[in-house]
TrEMBL record, chain A:
This is Nitrile hydratase beta subunit. InterPro entries: CN_hydtase_beta-like_N, CN_hydtase_beta_C, Elect_transpt_acc-like_dom_sf. Gene3D superfamilies: Nitrile hydratase, beta subunit. Residues 1-35 are annotated as: Disordered. Residues 27-122 form the Nitrile hydratase beta subunit-like N-terminal domain. It comes from Jannaschia seohaensis. It comes from the Bacteria.
Automatic annotation (TrEMBL), chain B:
Transmembrane segments: none annotated. It holds the Pfam family NHase_beta_C. Residues 4-89 form the Nitrile hydratase beta subunit domain. This is Nitrile hydratase.
Amino acid sequence: MADPHDGTEQGSARPFAPASSDPSRRWHDMGGTLAGPVPGDEHDFALWEKRVDALVILSGLKGVFTVDGLRRVLEDMGEEAFETMTYYERWVAALNQNHLEQGTYTVAELGAKMEEVRARGETYADAADAS
Amino acid sequence: MPLEPGTRVRVKTMTPPGHIRTPFYLRGKTGAVERVLGPFANPEELAYGQDGRALPLYRVRFRMADVWADATTPTDTIDAEIYAHWLEPA
Protein backbone atom coordinates (compact mmCIF):
# COMPACT_ATOMS: atom_id res chain seq x y z
CA MET A 1 0.00 0.00 0.00
CA ALA A 2 1.25 3.47 -0.81
CA ASP A 3 2.20 5.79 1.99
CA PRO A 4 -1.12 7.45 2.83
CA HIS A 5 0.66 10.70 3.58
CA ASP A 6 2.66 11.03 0.38
CA GLY A 7 0.22 13.54 -1.02
CA THR A 8 -0.93 11.43 -3.96
CA GLU A 9 -4.06 9.85 -2.53
CA GLN A 10 -7.50 11.31 -2.83
CA GLY A 11 -8.36 13.56 0.04
CA SER A 12 -4.79 14.30 1.00
CA ALA A 13 -3.92 17.79 2.09
CA ARG A 14 -4.10 20.35 -0.65
CA PRO A 15 -3.78 24.07 -0.22
CA PHE A 16 -7.06 25.94 -0.20
CA ALA A 17 -8.11 29.42 0.69
CA PRO A 18 -9.39 29.88 4.23
CA ALA A 19 -13.17 30.01 4.03
CA SER A 20 -13.54 33.10 6.15
CA SER A 21 -12.15 34.89 9.14
CA ASP A 22 -15.70 34.98 10.56
CA PRO A 23 -15.60 32.83 13.71
CA SER A 24 -19.25 31.81 13.26
CA ARG A 25 -18.40 30.14 9.95
CA ARG A 26 -17.35 26.55 10.52
CA TRP A 27 -14.10 25.42 8.91
CA HIS A 28 -15.69 22.99 6.44
CA ASP A 29 -18.34 25.41 5.14
CA MET A 30 -16.24 26.52 2.16
CA GLY A 31 -18.98 26.95 -0.44
CA GLY A 32 -18.77 30.21 -2.32
CA THR A 33 -15.07 30.75 -1.64
CA LEU A 34 -12.28 30.66 -4.21
CA ALA A 35 -10.82 27.18 -4.49
CA GLY A 36 -8.50 27.26 -7.51
CA PRO A 37 -8.39 24.57 -10.20
CA VAL A 38 -10.02 21.18 -9.67
CA PRO A 39 -7.37 18.40 -9.51
CA GLY A 40 -8.10 15.85 -12.24
CA ASP A 41 -5.75 13.11 -11.08
CA GLU A 42 -7.09 9.59 -10.88
CA HIS A 43 -6.73 7.36 -7.87
CA ASP A 44 -6.61 3.59 -7.47
CA PHE A 45 -8.40 2.59 -4.29
CA ALA A 46 -6.71 0.17 -1.90
CA LEU A 47 -8.64 -2.88 -0.75
CA TRP A 48 -9.12 -1.46 2.74
CA GLU A 49 -10.54 1.74 1.24
CA LYS A 50 -13.10 -0.25 -0.76
CA ARG A 51 -14.02 -2.10 2.41
CA VAL A 52 -14.56 1.15 4.31
CA ASP A 53 -16.77 2.40 1.50
CA ALA A 54 -18.76 -0.86 1.55
CA LEU A 55 -19.17 -0.67 5.34
CA VAL A 56 -20.57 2.86 5.13
CA ILE A 57 -23.08 1.80 2.47
CA LEU A 58 -24.04 -1.33 4.44
CA SER A 59 -24.43 0.68 7.65
CA GLY A 60 -26.90 2.93 5.86
CA LEU A 61 -28.85 0.00 4.42
CA LYS A 62 -29.00 -1.59 7.88
CA GLY A 63 -30.32 1.66 9.35
CA VAL A 64 -27.39 2.19 11.73
CA PHE A 65 -26.64 5.71 10.54
CA THR A 66 -27.08 7.95 7.52
CA VAL A 67 -24.77 10.08 5.42
CA ASP A 68 -25.79 12.91 7.74
CA GLY A 69 -24.18 11.14 10.69
CA LEU A 70 -21.05 10.49 8.65
CA ARG A 71 -20.77 14.12 7.63
CA ARG A 72 -21.45 15.37 11.15
CA VAL A 73 -18.46 13.43 12.51
CA LEU A 74 -16.21 14.41 9.59
CA GLU A 75 -17.02 18.06 10.27
CA ASP A 76 -16.48 17.69 14.01
CA MET A 77 -13.08 16.04 13.40
CA GLY A 78 -11.90 19.47 12.41
CA GLU A 79 -9.60 21.10 9.91
CA GLU A 80 -6.44 19.43 11.19
CA ALA A 81 -7.86 15.98 10.40
CA PHE A 82 -8.80 17.22 6.94
CA GLU A 83 -5.19 18.25 6.34
CA THR A 84 -3.42 15.24 7.90
CA MET A 85 -5.66 12.23 7.20
CA THR A 86 -6.64 10.73 3.85
CA TYR A 87 -10.25 10.59 2.68
CA TYR A 88 -10.89 6.99 3.78
CA GLU A 89 -8.91 7.39 7.01
CA ARG A 90 -11.44 10.08 7.91
CA TRP A 91 -14.32 7.90 6.70
CA VAL A 92 -13.33 4.91 8.82
CA ALA A 93 -13.00 7.14 11.88
CA ALA A 94 -16.47 8.60 11.27
CA LEU A 95 -17.90 5.13 10.57
CA ASN A 96 -16.53 3.86 13.87
CA GLN A 97 -17.78 6.88 15.83
CA ASN A 98 -21.33 6.37 14.54
CA HIS A 99 -21.28 2.63 15.34
CA LEU A 100 -20.05 3.33 18.87
CA GLU A 101 -22.81 5.90 19.35
CA GLN A 102 -25.47 3.52 18.05
CA GLY A 103 -24.23 0.64 20.21
CA THR A 104 -23.25 -1.76 17.42
CA TYR A 105 -20.25 -2.67 19.59
CA THR A 106 -18.59 -1.32 22.68
CA VAL A 107 -15.20 0.37 22.98
CA ALA A 108 -13.91 -2.72 24.81
CA GLU A 109 -15.17 -5.06 22.08
CA LEU A 110 -13.50 -2.85 19.47
CA GLY A 111 -10.23 -2.92 21.40
CA ALA A 112 -10.26 -6.71 21.69
CA LYS A 113 -11.03 -7.10 17.96
CA MET A 114 -8.24 -4.71 17.00
CA GLU A 115 -5.76 -6.76 19.05
CA GLU A 116 -6.98 -9.95 17.37
CA VAL A 117 -6.56 -8.44 13.91
CA ARG A 118 -3.17 -6.92 14.78
CA ALA A 119 -1.92 -10.39 15.77
CA ARG A 120 -2.60 -11.66 12.25
CA GLY A 121 0.31 -9.64 10.89
CA GLU A 122 1.07 -6.47 8.98
CA THR A 123 -0.07 -7.54 5.50
CA TYR A 124 -2.97 -9.40 3.90
CA ALA A 125 -0.45 -12.17 3.01
CA ASP A 126 0.63 -12.49 6.66
CA ALA A 127 -3.03 -12.67 7.70
CA ALA A 128 -3.71 -15.43 5.14
CA ASP A 129 -0.73 -17.43 6.45
CA ALA A 130 -1.96 -17.05 10.02
CA SER A 131 -5.42 -18.39 9.35
CA MET B 1 -48.82 24.23 3.75
CA PRO B 2 -45.55 24.53 1.84
CA LEU B 3 -44.69 27.92 0.35
CA GLU B 4 -45.80 28.52 -3.23
CA PRO B 5 -43.20 28.80 -5.99
CA GLY B 6 -42.31 32.46 -6.48
CA THR B 7 -42.55 33.30 -2.78
CA ARG B 8 -39.75 35.65 -1.72
CA VAL B 9 -37.74 34.26 1.16
CA ARG B 10 -34.69 35.24 3.19
CA VAL B 11 -32.24 32.68 4.57
CA LYS B 12 -31.93 33.01 8.33
CA THR B 13 -28.67 34.42 9.63
CA MET B 14 -28.45 32.15 12.66
CA THR B 15 -25.18 30.26 13.19
CA PRO B 16 -25.79 27.43 15.65
CA PRO B 17 -23.02 24.90 16.16
CA GLY B 18 -23.66 21.40 14.84
CA HIS B 19 -24.42 19.76 11.50
CA ILE B 20 -26.06 22.28 9.19
CA ARG B 21 -27.02 21.96 5.53
CA THR B 22 -27.57 25.65 4.86
CA PRO B 23 -24.42 27.11 3.31
CA PHE B 24 -22.86 30.00 5.20
CA TYR B 25 -22.51 32.12 2.06
CA LEU B 26 -26.31 32.23 1.62
CA ARG B 27 -27.25 33.23 5.14
CA GLY B 28 -29.14 36.50 5.17
CA LYS B 29 -29.55 36.40 1.37
CA THR B 30 -32.91 36.85 -0.34
CA GLY B 31 -34.26 34.72 -3.19
CA ALA B 32 -37.47 33.10 -4.39
CA VAL B 33 -38.86 29.60 -4.08
CA GLU B 34 -38.25 27.93 -7.43
CA ARG B 35 -40.04 24.69 -6.53
CA VAL B 36 -41.09 22.54 -3.62
CA LEU B 37 -38.99 19.39 -3.58
CA GLY B 38 -41.18 17.71 -1.01
CA PRO B 39 -40.94 16.69 2.60
CA PHE B 40 -37.63 15.17 3.66
CA ALA B 41 -36.33 14.10 7.06
CA ASN B 42 -34.39 16.90 8.71
CA PRO B 43 -30.66 16.12 8.24
CA GLU B 44 -29.83 18.19 11.32
CA GLU B 45 -31.63 15.52 13.37
CA LEU B 46 -30.56 12.50 11.28
CA ALA B 47 -26.96 13.53 11.86
CA TYR B 48 -27.31 12.79 15.57
CA GLY B 49 -29.00 9.39 15.20
CA GLN B 50 -32.57 10.67 15.54
CA ASP B 51 -35.36 9.73 13.14
CA GLY B 52 -35.57 13.21 11.66
CA ARG B 53 -38.90 14.99 11.36
CA ALA B 54 -40.09 15.56 7.81
CA LEU B 55 -39.82 19.18 6.65
CA PRO B 56 -40.53 20.88 3.33
CA LEU B 57 -37.37 21.22 1.27
CA TYR B 58 -37.27 24.06 -1.24
CA ARG B 59 -35.14 24.83 -4.23
CA VAL B 60 -34.50 28.55 -3.78
CA ARG B 61 -33.21 30.70 -6.63
CA PHE B 62 -30.95 33.68 -5.92
CA ARG B 63 -29.69 36.39 -8.29
CA MET B 64 -25.89 36.38 -8.31
CA ALA B 65 -25.91 40.10 -7.48
CA ASP B 66 -27.95 39.34 -4.37
CA VAL B 67 -25.34 36.84 -3.20
CA TRP B 68 -22.12 38.54 -4.27
CA ALA B 69 -22.14 42.33 -4.57
CA ASP B 70 -19.25 42.23 -7.08
CA ALA B 71 -20.72 39.46 -9.24
CA THR B 72 -19.44 39.73 -12.82
CA THR B 73 -22.70 38.17 -14.11
CA PRO B 74 -25.22 39.85 -11.79
CA THR B 75 -28.37 38.59 -13.53
CA ASP B 76 -27.29 34.95 -13.57
CA THR B 77 -28.87 32.84 -10.87
CA ILE B 78 -27.78 30.21 -8.40
CA ASP B 79 -30.10 27.57 -6.94
CA ALA B 80 -29.74 26.01 -3.51
CA GLU B 81 -31.83 23.45 -1.67
CA ILE B 82 -32.87 24.77 1.72
CA TYR B 83 -35.14 23.36 4.40
CA ALA B 84 -38.21 25.29 5.56
CA HIS B 85 -36.90 26.05 9.04
CA TRP B 86 -34.03 28.08 7.57
CA LEU B 87 -36.32 30.42 5.59
CA GLU B 88 -38.28 33.49 6.66
CA PRO B 89 -40.58 35.80 4.68
CA ALA B 90 -38.73 38.48 2.73
